[in-house]
């Protein structure tokens, strides 16, 4: 059973709705969305706990300072909640990421007004999370924007203190070290989390790229309907058989197969039915040969079998006959019976030729002679 965080959020109605299907169409987007939702929810809970703690705490002792602290925490909580609501109704990632970054920026800069400013505020170091988060969740443009905003916020504190502005310290002296330890731990944990998420995204992207490359490579060498090798790959298989003869004196046979009575199936019952028939034909052809043999589809109803390392003409004749017998069996699809047969032309390496193009041409010519009789086997005239 899938126990991933993505799965848990996908089970919540409305969070991954139909509006977001276009954007959230792969695992990378689901992962990003899950991160935004999870972090925003946890941060909202933490901000709420901080508000409750401030309300009942004797610190800050100055009522105005306490009211300011509660107001800052309320703004932070609203930013976090807004990111959740924004995502729920818009189903996009960048907006909620920017709203969350806003909340973190407020949570790390404004408390400095009440906690000693640039040098003494225990919150300010967490600000490094803002640009890191923005780069990972909202993209390069937003990452650069938040980097600039972060730098401006820190510079504002620095300039204010250079100008002689002094900020009150509302944190008790005996609690400053503990708070700094906590905030540094939070900052490190968040940066580590962001780096971990970057690594996860990179791994998933690499895996998806490799799958796409494998898919494209397969499509370039295989027939899309049957999964058999295509003409390009067939030529390589014939070249390999020729190379095996030249190196080990192995003989090989080429069976050029054309289906009889296939066109009426397409014309009468449609191409979808014809495709199903071709799929069955493929299975029957593969059942007639060994795994070391090659079966390729080179046209609508044309197939080629390459038999490497055969010990004489009798083996190829036996396999060709097996192919004829197998294809001549009735095909039943959707309560309809179809009867097809095949015409097969056979040519040999090296007896007929040791050129890939020539040997295929000779097998093709032999197939056309077999086509005159239908359900027949003909050999290259050189044989």
What does this structure look like?
By secondary structure, this protein is an alpha+beta fold. It folds into 2 domains: 5-217; 231-379, Alpha-Beta Plaits (2-Layer Sandwich), CATH 3.30.70.270. The chain is 62% helix and 11% strand. The protein has helices spanning 5-10, 27-56, 63-90, 94-109, 117-120, 129-138, 140-162, 173-221, 231-248, 263-269, 271-287, 313-327, 356-371; strands at residues 251-260, 294-297, 302-310, 331-333, 336-338, 341-349, 377-379. The strands form 2 sheets. The protein has a 5-stranded mixed beta sheet, sandwiched between helices. Strands 4-5 form a two-stranded antiparallel sheet. The radius of gyration is 36 Å and the shape is rod-shaped. It holds the Pfam family GGDEF. The chain crosses the membrane at residues 35-56, 68-87, 99-118, 124-139, 146-165, 177-198. Residues 250-382 form the GGDEF domain. GO terms for molecular function: catalytic activity. Keywords: Membrane, Transmembrane, Transmembrane helix.
Explain the layout of strands and helices.
Elements: H1 5-10, H2 27-56, H3 63-90, H4 94-109, H5 117-120, H6 129-138, H7 140-162, H8 173-221, H9 231-248, E1 251-260, H10 263-269, H11 271-287, E2 294-297, E3 302-310, H12 313-327, E4 331-333, E5 336-338, E6 341-349, H13 356-371, E7 377-379
Parallel strand pairs: 6-7
Antiparallel strand pairs: 1-3, 1-6, 2-3, 4-5
Structural class: alpha+beta
Percent in strands: 5-15%
* Topology order in helix (H) and strand (E) letters: HHHHHHHHHEHHEEHEEEHE
User: How many structural units, i.e. domains?
Assistant: 2
**Number of strand elements:** 7
**Rough shape?**
rod-shaped
Radius of gyration over all CA atoms, rounded: 36 Å
Q: Strands of the largest sheet, in order across it?
A: 2-3-1-6-7
Terminal residue distance: 61 Å
Low-confidence stretches: 1-13, 18-25
Instruction: Supply the number of helical segments.
Output: 13
Largest sheet: 5 strands, mixed
Approximate helicity band: 55-70%
For the residues shown, what is the average pLDDT? 88
Cofactor: Mg(2+)
Keywords: Membrane, Transmembrane, Transmembrane helix
Protein name: GGDEF domain-containing protein
Transmembrane segments: 35-56, 68-87, 99-118, 124-139, 146-165, 177-198
């Amino acid at each position: 059973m899938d126990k991933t965080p993505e799965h848990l959020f996908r089970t919540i109605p409305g969070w991954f709705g139909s509006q977001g299907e276009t954007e959230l169409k792969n695992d990378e987007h689901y992962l990003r969305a899950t991160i935004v939702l999870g972090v925003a929810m946890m941060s909202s809970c933490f901000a709420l706990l901080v508000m409750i703690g401030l309300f009942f705490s004797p610190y800050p002792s100055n009522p105005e300072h306490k009211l300011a602290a509660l107001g800052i925490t309320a703004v932070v909580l609203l930013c976090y909640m807004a990111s959740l609501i924004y995502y729920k109704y818009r189903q996009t990632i960048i907006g909620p990421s920017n709203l969350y970054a806003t909340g973190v920026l407020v949570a790390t800069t404004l408390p400095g007004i009440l906690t000693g400013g640039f040098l003494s505020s225990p919150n300010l170091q967490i600000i490094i999370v803002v640009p890191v988060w923005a780069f990972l969740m909202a993209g390069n443009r937003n990452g650069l924007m938040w980097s600039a905003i972060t730098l401006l916020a820190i510079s504002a504190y620095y300039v204010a203190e250079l100008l002689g502005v002094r900020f009150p310290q509302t944190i008790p002296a005996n609690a400053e070290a503990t708070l700094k330890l906590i905030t540094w731990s939070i900052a490190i944990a968040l940066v580590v989390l962001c780096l971990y998420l970057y690594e996860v995204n990179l791994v998933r992207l690499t895996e998806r790229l490799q799958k796409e490359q494998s898919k494209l490579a397969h499509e370039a060498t295989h027939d899309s309907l049957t999964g058999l090798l295509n003409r390009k790959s067939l030529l390589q298989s014939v070249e390999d058989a020729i190379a095996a003869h030249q190196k080990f004196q192995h003989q090989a046979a080429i069976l050029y197969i054309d289906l009889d009575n296939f066109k009426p199936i397409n014309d009468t019952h449609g191409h979808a039915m014809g495709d199903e028939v071709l799929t069955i034909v493929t299975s029957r052809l593969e059942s007639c040969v060994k795994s070391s043999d090659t079966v390729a589809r080179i046209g609508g109803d044309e197939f080629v079998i390459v038999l490497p390392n055969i010990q004489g003409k009798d083996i190829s004749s036996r396999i060709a006959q097996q192919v004829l017998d197998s294809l001549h069996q009735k095909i039943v699809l959707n309560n309809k019976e179809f009867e097809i047969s095949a015409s097969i032309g056979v040519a040999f390496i090296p007896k007929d030729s040791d050129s890939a193009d020539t040997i295929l041409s000779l097998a093709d010519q032999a197939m056309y002679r077999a086509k005159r009789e239908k359900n027949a086997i003909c050999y290259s005239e050189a044989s």
